[in-house]
Amino acid sequence: MKRIFIDPAKCDGCKNCTLACMESHRQDGGKGLYTLDLTDPANQSRNFIVADGKGGYAPVFCRHCDVPDCAGACMSGALQKNMENGLVEYDKEKCAACYMCVMSCRYGVPAISPDRKRIIKCDFCAHLEEGPACVRACPKQAIEVREV
Amino acid sequence: MERFVIIGAGAAGISAAQVLRDVRPKDTITVISTDEKVHSRCMLHKYLGHERDAQGINFVDADFFEKHDITHIACQTVDKIDTEGKMVCYGEYSAPYDKLLIATGAGFFIPPIPHFREAPNVFGFRDLSDALKIDEAFARGKRVFIVGSGLVGLDAASALCERGADVTIAEMAPRVMPLQTDEYAASVYQKAFEEHGCKFLLGIGASDAVVDGDGNITEVILSNGDHVPCDFIIMAAGVRPRIQIALDSGIAAERAIQVDDHLRTSAPDVYAAGDCTGLSGVWPDAMAQGKAAAWNMAGVEEVYEKPYPFKNTSNFFGVTMLSAGRLDLTEGADVLVHKTAGEYKKAVITDGKLTGYLSLGDISNEGLYLYLIRTGTDLSGKTDKIFRLTFADFYGINEKNGEFAYQV
Prior knowledge:
The structure holds 2 protein chains of 2 kinds.
Chain A: E1 2-6, H1 16-24, E2 48-51, E3 57-60, H2 69-73, E4 79-81, E5 88-90, H3 100-104, E6 111-112, E7 119-120, H4 133-137, E8 143-147
Antiparallel strand pairs in A: 1-8, 2-3, 4-5, 6-7
Chain B: E1 3-7, H1 11-23, E2 28-32, H2 44-48, H3 64-67, E3 71-73, E4 80-82, E5 87-90, E6 93-96, E7 99-102, E8 106-108, E9 122-123, H4 128-140, E10 143-147, H5 151-162, E11 166-171, H6 183-195, E12 199-202, E13 206-211, E14 217-222, E15 227-229, E16 232-235, E17 239-241, H7 244-248, E18 270-272, H8 283-297, E19 311-316, E20 319-325, E21 334-340, E22 343-350, E23 353-360, H9 367-375
């Protein structure tokens, strides 16, 4: 079971993780940050960083919780906790876009898609062999994949 | 080896079966359901709208029962529980249990309006069998009269509007979805439905009906005396916990089956979970109750904390809404509103705590508002940015497992 561990003390708010997430999940077929449309809601990031107002930063990433509020609220079976790899996996074909998961995640992580037909949530970059793009993009090692 | 029996294959019953199998790999688990197929009640409109087939609204894998070695006895209704002999009886059969879960859910309610309870063309919209009946009726006539504009009524209306029905909805309250909306949010939904051909009769009820020789209702007579012709009627004016089985078996129940904080009923080794307990009527709570009951049935003590039932989301014609807490209780409260193009948010703050929250439009990342309401988190010093709160405002990390933890 893997989880992206966060060390907020190391984060300097550069948002490279956010850009990497957007780039990793872009659907327009393009490659590279220079062609990534940062204003297109379809490219929105699954993670976000908030300045805490005291000079520090709070990186908010899906925890793939041990007891996930989101999957516990899902009435279509689209969100399921995979007990083998620990991930809360999302099947967009099953999703009914009821948004019970958005309401139920106490940390406010899931977002809704611009077409209102699915959700936007961390998938641990399942399509990338090398693992989550955000982790590789962090220049401060503030986020890292660890076994839990 | 223990024998676990579950009555009902809805959210509570199925989640209980899953947990029991996880904890007790070798014991016998039997699910008895009136429903033929497992389906998500909250997705019935997808079926009625012909967007998905029956398997498409199944919330577990098609081979759920085989995969988990659970016996599913479908199309059977349990009539009685012999709580002394520890046996459930259905039709001419019976099944012994060591631990039993009642997860019979809730059924639609037909108010005592003349002809409504007897007419063959009055349907509920709770189970797949209801959707099938509506589908058949729709093949014969497209004029639909829906009683009630809550989520169930609007679900049915949205599905039938998409199929070109002539839909009229009567709502006793002065606005649509009265439990979840305020006036503005209701007006946005009303407009969206009207643009799809739906007609609303607000602040008005059905009081009588004209029937044909077969007893079918051909016209609904409203409380103002108007007549509305229709081909069939869908009742969406509330539900009642299904408690008959408890009443017939000497298990304590009034409006709902009574349970303690371990979801135990008054009968030994008999538990209840989901809508039949009357604790809450929303999917996530039924799931949580099913799981908690299962842990207790398996002998792992789990205290079930009372759920916070005032919460819902909706998504009709791309209009999305999150509603949490009590928007109606505003005495002595500060009501803050934020309105921009395509977005509307409202917060009710009472004594420094969030007590109600409504968001229409982009509801992304707003789950924390429900948490803040249900935990009564003190928001002193944060209310000036109430619509911009994120978890960063309560940021904390559990060092051991890397999960988040609220710091307040």
